[in-house]
Amino acid sequence: MLEVKEALKVYGEGEARVVALDKVSLKVNKGDYIAIMGPSGSGKSTLLNIIGGLDRISGGEVLLDGKRIDNLDENSLVEVRRRRIAYVFQQYHLLPSLTAVENVYMPLLFGGSNGQGLDKAMEFLKMVGLEKRALHKPGQLSGGEQQRVAIARAIIHNPSLILADEPTGNMDQKTGADILEVFARLNEEGRSIVMVTHSPEVARHAKEIVYLKDGRRVERVEQK
Ligand SMILES: Nc1ncnc2c1ncn2[C@@H]1O[C@H](COP(=O)(O)OP(=O)(O)OP(=O)(O)O)[C@@H](O)[C@H]1O
Ligand SMILES: [Mg+2]
Q1: Residues lining ligand 2 (ion), CB within 5 A?
Q2: Which of 105, 114, 197, 222 could bridge across to 121 with cysteines, CB 3.0–4.6 Å?
Q3: Please, where are the H alpha helices in the chain?
Q4: Domain boundaries of the chain, sorted by first residue
């Protein structure tokens, strides 16, 4: 489905030059659940941003269903991303003045939705187990609940690939477990997940762990 081939990412020039990714390759097929691990600064977020088209590579290729997307112009890239890829961040970026269900509904506004949006948003809130909190504002929700709202918002376009950078990073174990349960369900439905995490405990839930070090892929471990 999505393939990163020999991706190179270089930041800065001269003294400030950093090779964040040094020819990293990664294939994500339908139904994959991959955890990316490695020390701080090893290139995990950079790789995720490149998979998701949030950042450009300095060399190599990114292919979606066999077609190169790394050389698309900004508008086409945004379009691909909007249709196929969901991105879950460590910070939830919810709008504080909107209710949970309105936050989930937000992406549909840009897609020119026709009034059925709120029903659909409700359906997705239900999927993450939060229908009873639909009218709460982010400030009235716990961290894990806010993250679940953010996940519902991220997947309302039915993306086939979900990318998550430390999605349980700010949470206690119980709350993190709720998020992992949502991911497990989404993965069972056939969606692919690529998740960056520092926690071996969290990574255990993935089907495969890819380790990065100094911008290089050093190991891959299949689980279960
Ligand atoms: N915009 C940028 N400009 C310059 N260097 C950058 C930029 N973004 C990242 N880097 C550098 O690239 C390297 C990889 O960064 P990246 O954010 O991918 O690491 P990471 O593995 O996600 O680390 P962490 O676990 O701390 O989040 C780091 O050395 C970082 O300093
Ligand atoms: Mg990071």
Answers
A1: 45
A2: 105
A3: 44-51, 74-84, 100-110, 117-127, 143-155, 173-188, 200-203
A4: 30-56+81-222
